[in-house]
Amino acid sequence: MDKFPVVAQAGASQPNNIQQHEPSTQASAQGVASDFDVRMMQRCLELARRALGRTSPNPLVGSVVVQDGEIVGEGFHPRAGEPHAEVFALRAAGERARGATVYVNLEPCNHYGRTPPCSEGLIAAGVAKVVVGMVDPNPLVAGGGIARLRAAGVEVLVGVETAACEQLNEGFVHRILYKRPFGILKYAMTLDGKIATNSGHSAWVTNPSARGEVHQLRAGCDAVIVGGNTVRLDNPYLTSHQEGVNNPLRVVMSRQLDLPTDARLWDTAQAPTLVLTQVGANPEFQKFLQQKGVEVMELPSLTPDAVMSHLYDRGFCSVLWECGGTLAASAIAGGAVQKILAFIAPKIIGGSHAPTPVGDLGFDTMTQALLLERVRWRVVGSDCLVEGYLTAKNQ
Ligand SMILES: NC(=O)c1ccc[n+]([C@@H]2O[C@H](COP(=O)([O-])OP(=O)(O)OC[C@H]3O[C@@H](n4cnc5c(N)ncnc54)[C@H](OP(=O)(O)O)[C@@H]3O)[C@@H](O)[C@H]2O)c1
Ligand SMILES: [Zn+2]
After folding, report:
1. Ligand 1 pocket check: which of 229, 232, 234, 276 to mutate, most ligand atoms within 8 Å of Cβ?
2. 302: how many CB neighbours lie within 10 A of its CB?
3. What's the mean pLDDT in 72-81?
4. What does the alpha-carbon distance between residue 338 and residue 317 come to, in Å, rounded to a whole number?
């Protein structure tokens, strides 16, 4: 049983059992979703998150099978190459899948990849209804799974908790649509807009709760990027600092390769490190890094887009930029950042030469400012977190 990531099965004592279907309350794109549907979709998202940071290039997907208002099977997609969430949920439900309603946060697939199509699996299991959180983002296959199910007489309801479903897989969606990983720029600054002191010292700008959030954020990303200066000045670990949780690939962009030999990033026992540099840079140091187990790669042009293109080829969905302002400006200008997470600490450090989160973007007037949309503010311990997306106009 351990082989299958099924987390709960039917049984009166299961805490997830929810009694009878409730009256319909929420209108959706096609059909009407009830409160019960919403709760089941939230459960799918919860299940999907169990594989956080491990599924790329595939999406995070969870699935629940409900028979007579009771959960009879659950599952999630654990990693690429393994069966999809619906397969695990149907296996857990067994015969009780017949006539059941299946919830899944992403449209069931309809093509033969490494595994057979889930649409066929659902039809073969004899399910009566499928509730889908969001349609497949790939324009070439979007709606195919839903159409196949409907053609076989399965009722399909689409668009329950869609915003939450889209956010959970924003990296996967961006990867499909733009052939690049989704870029998140995260920084911590003082109330007067500094990410370090005049001397470059930055440990710590924020409080422990905010740093805990950053560890969580890393767990959901495939790679985290810094530049050479951050390695020289901060000597970071860039790990998730938690047992059994995903550690992203730690990526250093350095043109000169004039880096310390005792950096924490060269210890690859906990997490792998990749150093990206320019052709011909410091061959001696490249050799030293390779002996330490660090992967080194020379790129003809060390730009944020070339790096993101390489990380796309590695199958990555989400990449976290944890660099200083110079590289951050270059990443934004190069279209490698889609989302910003700014932690703001209520402290003032001053310093006319203290570094700020984003270096020169070449703008002269305030009207040129990059605008964020879908902005949210939240208190994290004693700090404030501002989240938002760069608008399409900026890209
Ligand atoms: N509070 C925070 O959130 C936070 C986060 C990170 C850093 N920091 C602080 O930020 C300061 C460092 O800032 P920084 O801007 O120099 O950061 P950085 O993250 O070190 O980025 C700059 C370095 O990136 C490398 N690089 C490679 N390709 C590049 C490209 N295309 N464009 C630009 N840079 C490229 C260069 O390394 P080489 O010189 O090796 O060639 C360059 O010196 C430190 O004081 C650190 O403490 C604060
Ligand atoms: Zn599938």
Report:
1. 229
2. 17
3. 97
4. 12
